[in-house]
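Working notes for the structural subgroup meeting. M.R. asked for a predicted model of this chain before we commit to crystallization trials. I am recording the input and output together here so anyone reviewing the notebook later can reproduce the run.

Input as submitted:
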Amino acid sequence: SYGLRGDDPPFSLLLQISLPGWYVWALLAPAVVFLALRWPLPDSWSRRLPLHLGASLVAAAIWIGLVIVVREALGLPGSTALSIVAVNGVAPAVLTYWGIALATFWYRAQIDGRARQVRAAELDAELSRARLQALTARLQPHFLFNTMHAISADLRSDPVRAERMLVDLADLLRFAVDAEGREVVALERELEFTRGYVALQRTRLEGRVEITFDVEASGSPGVPVLLLQPLVENAIEHGAARRAEQTRIAIRVQATADRIRVEIEDDGPGLPESFELERADGVGLATTLARLREHFGSEHRFEILARPDGGTRVLLDVPALEVPREGASP
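Returned structure, recorded in token form:
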């Protein structure tokens, strides 16, 4: 308009004329955001689209009226006639309403999407935790049954040895009670339990097994509870317990703050030709394999191999876990 009259208005004057319209939108925007959150269009567009169309027209009418009032109050040049402002302002006002509403819809969709992702992750974690607890619960009665069966065999033939084994078993049960509901324990606690189990088996087998520990550990890494005991039990039951001569079992553990490597070697009769770890049907091995997958996914290595000079070698390499604080949820 100024250009058609040959005038050259200063830029500041153009801002003074146009900015009141945006000041008014600054007042109206919270109401538009509220309506967009109250009536989210993606949830039920057929019913809520007419509501927003009506609200956009009401917002345009309010905007037009406020702009006229502000321009007259500030004494700004330009027409303040209702008819002219309405013709020029309805379409931009409706578009501005929808711009604010669509931006709010998009923002809410982003927030809801992240919330769904978090909830899905929480549900996955809860499901994984339930599976791990169920797997651990399988190991405890399995270990207890095998141990009690071994003790019962000596109750009449060697009651003194059976009594010593019962004392060792009581110490192991204290560990099991302390670890109740836990999925992860410190490596030193797991080794303490395994050494107690080894002491019990030494008493039971009376010189038919020689078990050595070689541990190099730094920091305080955590491991799944009852991780080592089933592997040692497997070496004993399928090695020393099945032959009269002495069986040697070497347990080597190397641990850092990041990873834990375990090797268990025995010079027993070795693996059957048809052995496949994936098809292992024993409770100890099958459960250990399932727990490793739940805890570590593909970031672990677990192998049971025949040694070239006879016997079996178990190799386990897993990431170190964080040990829960006392009193914290497992």
